[in-house]
Specification:
DNA-binding; 6-stranded antiparallel beta sheet; homodimer; alpha+beta
Chain lengths: ~220, ~220
Amino acid sequence: MYVTIPTQPSANADVTPLRNAHTIPAEARLKAGSYLYFEGDSVVWLYQVITGVLRLTRMLEDGRRQVISFGYPGDIVGFPSDGLHHTDCDVLVTARLQPYRRSNLECGDGDPELHQKLLQAALREISAMQDHFMMLGRKSAIEKVASFICVLSDRVGRDCGAYRHVELPMSRTDIADFLGLTTETVSRTFTQLRKSKIIAIDNIHTVIILRPTALLALSLGDRE
Amino acid sequence: MYVTIPTQPSANADVTPLRNAHTIPAEARLKAGSYLYFEGDSVVWLYQVITGVLRLTRMLEDGRRQVISFGYPGDIVGFPSDGLHHTDCDVLVTARLQPYRRSNLECGDGDPELHQKLLQAALREISAMQDHFMMLGRKSAIEKVASFICVLSDRVGRDCGAYRHVELPMSRTDIADFLGLTTETVSRTFTQLRKSKIIAIDNIHTVIILRPTALLALSLGDRE
DNA sequence: GGGCGGCATTGATACCGATCAATCAGCCAG
DNA sequence: CTGGCTGATTGATCGGTATCAATGCCGCCC
């Protein structure tokens, strides 16, 4: 999941694997805290997230970290470059994953339809990352955080009574490293949104969107 | 071209098209200032840059701009997402381009070898963009500019006497929109590098690298 | 040659977000 | 329940980059 330019709210439907029938390997289940792969590992499998949440990260020698993306249901992670993984990937929320062989992406011989689906997923990934560039390079802290909540609301928000609830399983540090901010700034920005009654914070991992229109406006850079 | 983590200096050799033989369309030549495609256009061709420089940009409604990448010799531009272009692309330096049909990327029927090459290029693109995230999200102005010059030096620098020359055909505004800075900051950073005798500025579009090691150190965030 | 226009540089200042530091809250172990 | 640990929040301050403004540079056209 990247922070892309908001369009119309998306469906937020259940994810069905690309091939429900005889996809070679069975679904995998991974507990929170476990790792799927590390930077430098050679790629054997790609994974489509069915349920749960993954975290893809990259580190600099001096300790600076970038969260590249979060893997939400429907997302496919693990695209190889020169046959290798270029991020670490671990599990934030216990996940069910559909593995696909790297060979299904890289050559269409076995299953042309699956090959096509994986290729299209890679191409959509490029486009989504381009949008994310705009966010990292050009948006202010409040725009970043508002955009982040908006995207998650569309992807995994749930209507509870009058308001939409969004789970944030990741830490404030993860959000900061994803958006190119510090934890303190993320925290302050949440507080600011809470005080202006645009969101409420039910518990540290759940925000309730009180004024979705105002939140969307902030994400687009409208001056309040 | 993205600003990736510097590794060993790369070859900087001439680019040969993926298929020199019967690649269906002949090489195209495009003058500086002309556009290859616009955001929203449906994708018919991908282009490999043989010579010259392209610029890929994306705009927000309020005028904020992000330069997504520069297309340098060897780069392939125009990857579709849902069949559409998601950036504008125009020519900075008159270019020779090798076009490939979108169908050669999306289905391998016609030319499996070309299909494979285009697919691998798309996958490398994803990896390079991940590196670029780190740059946009976590690096300071001086690290960004130093990294930018280092990458261009590896890609298209030329040794002239004792020093390496790097052409910067794009404007300061382009560099700023690429690195997530303002023109003023880019300009000041160049001045700072010049005053500390790490680079010299021959003319506005040519920098001479006087102390490559110092430049590389700055790009990695060493406190000189 | 002279003037104009666009881009780059430089300067002064403002402000956003980082940094450093001090609680605070939740959670687990004993 | 209590103490300690970890992550979040809040506060005070600093600094880097943006912003606003003036000037400089250079190419181009009349």
